[in-house]
Amino acid sequence: MSMMYFTFYTTFMLGIMGFAFHRMHLLSALLCLEGMMLALFIAMSFWAVKHETLTYFSLPLIMLTFSACEASTGLALMVATARTHGSDKLKNLNLLQC
User: Fold this and answer.
1) Which domains does the chain have, with CATH numbers?
2) What DSSP character marks residue 25?
3) What CA–CA distance (Å, rounded) separates 36 from 14?
4) Whole-model pTM?
């Protein structure tokens, strides 16, 4: 395994581990998801450069667009839950209580 693949793999796995173990607040969960998406963006960008065809160059831009939409939606939900529940702790977001 080359050093580049090892770096992308460990970056993505650190995002998954952060999401699994440190999801007390909604903001930390969103940051872990954003780190995973950025690792995938960089990996897809290098993959497109490695294959040197024009059809693969639009895939990272599409994924980056979806990542920006995901981030803005997540931040809007975080602001809405912080206003209604008083904090962004995931423990307080029980759907049965709303």
Assistant:
1) 3-92 (1.10.287.3510)
2) B
3) 8
4) 0.79
Residue 69 burial class via C-beta count within 10 angstroms: exposed 0-12, middle 13-18, buried 19 and up: exposed
Q: Residue type at 31?
A: L
Alpha helices, DSSP H only, in 1-98? 3-21, 26-51, 58-85
Question: By CB neighbour count within 10 A (0-12 exposed, 13-18 middle, 19+ buried), where does 56 fall?
Answer: middle
Locate 56 and state its tokens: 């693969």
Q: If we measure between CA atoms, which residue out of 59, 22, 54 comes closest to residue 40?
A: 59
Gap between the Cα atoms of 51 and 56, Å rounded: 8
CA distance 83 to 77: 10
Token readout for 98 is 């709303």
- Phi and psi at 78, nearest 5°, equal -65, -40
Tens digits of residue pLDDT in 32-47: 888 899 999 888 888 8
